[in-house]
Specification:
Helix content: 10-25%
Number of domains: 2
Number of helices: 2
CATH class of the largest domain: Mainly Beta
CATH architecture of the largest domain: Sandwich
Strand content: 35-45%
CATH topology of the largest domain: Jelly Rolls
Bound molecules: calcium ion
Order of helices and strands: HHEEEEEEEEEEEEE
Number of strands: 13
Length: about 190
C-alpha cells in the first residue's frame, strides 16, 4: 500500500517535471520565431562595444533595464572617422523555417540625431531600421514593410548591425514570420544551435 503511494507520487512528480520542460522549451520550438541577445554577437567592431550595466567599464554610463543587463552601444563620437563608421556587430542566426520575416530590435535612442542603425543580411545591401521618435527608454523598432532582404530560407544567416549614427544602443534582436506579433518588453530568448 505504502509502496503504491510512493510510486504514484513519483509518477505525478515525473508528469510535473515533464510539464515544466515542455513549457520551458515552447519558445525555443516555435518555428518562424527567433530572439537573440545583442551581446551574443560573434564579432563586435569598435567603437561599437559591449556594456555590462552591472559592471560598467570606467567612463561608461550604464543604462538599466536591458535583457541580462547587457547591451551593445555606439558611444558618442564627436567627429566620426572612416574607421569609426566601420563599427558593427555580426550575428549568426539559424532559422528553422524559411519565409517572409519581420525584424524587430530592442533599442535605446538618445534623440532624433541618434535613432537608427543599418542592417545587412548575408551579402544583400543594408537597409535602415529606426528613425522613430521614442527617446531615452528601451523600445522595439521594426523593419519597414516588405523588406525584400528579409525573405529568408531555412538555415543559418549572417546578420550585421552597422553604424549609421552614434549614441545608439541595441539590446535584443527578434525575427518572426508572424506580421501581427508585437514585442512589448524583454522577450524570451530562443536557443540557437
Ligand atoms: Ca541584452
Amino acid at each position: 500500500m505504502r509502496l503504491n503511494r510512493v510510486r504514484c507520487r513519483f509518477a505525478v512528480w515525473r508528469l510535473w517535471v515533464a510539464g515544466i520542460c515542455l513549457s520551458g522549451f515552447a519558445a525555443a520550438a516555435r518555428a518562424g520565431h527567433v530572439c537573440v541577445d545583442a551581446e551574443s554577437a560573434t564579432h563586435v567592431q569598435a567603437p561599437m562595444r559591449r556594456v555590462d550595466a552591472g559592471n560598467p567599464e570606467e567612463g561608461v554610463t550604464p543604462i538599466e533595464g536591458a535583457s541580462r543587463n547587457t547591451y551593445l552601444e555606439i558611444p558618442a563620437i564627436a567627429e566620426p572617422s572612416e574607421e569609426d563608421k566601420q563599427a558593427h556587430a555580426k550575428f549568426k542566426i539559424t532559422l528553422e523555417e524559411g519565409g517572409d520575416y519581420v525584424l524587430w530590435m530592442r533599442v535605446w535612442w538618445d534623440d532624433e540625431c541618434s535613432n537608427s542603425f543599418r542592417v545587412g543580411i548575408n551579402d544583400q545591401s543594408p537597409f535602415i531600421l529606426g528613425r522613430n521618435r521614442v527617446f531615452r527608454r528601451w523600445n522595439w523598432v521594426r523593419s519597414p514593410p516588405r523588406t525584400r532582404q528579409l525573405t529568408l530560407e531555412a538555415g543559418t544567416h549572417t546578420l550585421k548591425v552597422l553604424y549609421r549614427e552614434d549614441r545608439v544602443r541595441l539590446d535584443q534582436i527578434l525575427l518572426t514570420t508572424d506580421p501581427r506579433f508585437v514585442p512589448v518588453d524583454i522577450e524570451p530568448l530562443t536557443s540557437q544551435p
